[in-house]
Amino acid sequence: MNLPRVSSHRQHQGGAAAVEFAIVLPVMILILWGLTTMGSVLYAQMSLSRAAADGVRALGTINGISSYQSVPEDVKASVRLEVIHSLALSLLAPTGLGDYDARVGWMQENILPNVSVDNQSCGGGNAGADVLRVRVSYPYSSIRILPPISLPMVGSMDGWMPQTLTGCATARL
Asked: In angstroms, what CA-CA distances link 169 with 54, 66, 123, 143?
């Protein structure tokens, strides 16, 4: 008994899905890497801006400050500590450390964000004696979620990533 022959077209399509998957998978991984990396940069930037605003709020609770020259060094140190506390509450400090005090300690020992309290504007230049600025610079390269990648024929994908992020807030006295 002779059975009709099945079309050979179906046999030639057997590996097409595997080839398409092999072509699409690297592109999908690159897109996922880019979204994750960009999302972590935006989160870190928002955390720094919030920490700078918390530092300015801490300045607002202190009585007797009328100009930049009237801000004592211990008040500047407490503003710096407030910024570090705010950063420790964010996800910039590892959550696996346990309690809040451990996260603050890790932030002070490992990252050491540069916190400045001065009378400059956030855009640069002197803003006047009645303006206080809290500026926070943070080494983003030390807290990356994903490492930078290098692609053949393209090179490193690290050129567009910021190495340092900055948050700034001002308050008029």
From this structure: 9, 17, 10, 23
